[in-house]
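Look at one record.

>
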Amino acid sequence: MSVWPSRFTAEGNFVAVVPLGMEHHDDLVEAACDGELYRLWYTRVPEPENMRSEIERRVGLGASGSLVPFAIVDKASGKAVGMTTYMNIDAANRRLEIGATWYRQSAQKSPLNTECKLLLLQNSFEQLNCICVEFRTHFMNVQSRRAIERLGAKLDGVLRSNMLMANGTVRDTAVYSIIASEWPAVKANLCWQLEKPRR
């Protein structure tokens, strides 16, 4: 019986999305320290000393088929600059979420996220034949919400008191999605964002 979705590697001009492994540990520790992202209360970036256990956790869940973890590699430097995951997988209904994503601070607001999402969405809609791809984030994570909206995802709604955070607060989760019929326009927009002149 084949696992859906299976592990894969995708490469663009700026970024490669590759199966996560322990070989990415040192790069990801460095990435988490760039801007001390692990200190942000409204998101879940692993602390440097916990990076090994987080990689092991994601890889272990990947082996069980409950998610597909990736490292995001900056092609210019050859270093992993963050993580992302296919998660909340519903094979029977051909739905999944792209989530648990983070990038080192210096890679944010660069072409890396746009191209990473293009590669993951392209695989989702064109190889896996997904009917819907979701994105979820903390309602108060304005930067993440704006990045998701720039992809062309639409807000489905807010799940109130959806999750307990490490600091004891309760998260309201903003849920976004892109559906299959929207993919051609979303793809065209993402390709344009990557091709347009940068100021």
Notes: The chain has one domain: 10-195. Residues 67 and 87 are 5 Å apart (CA to CA).
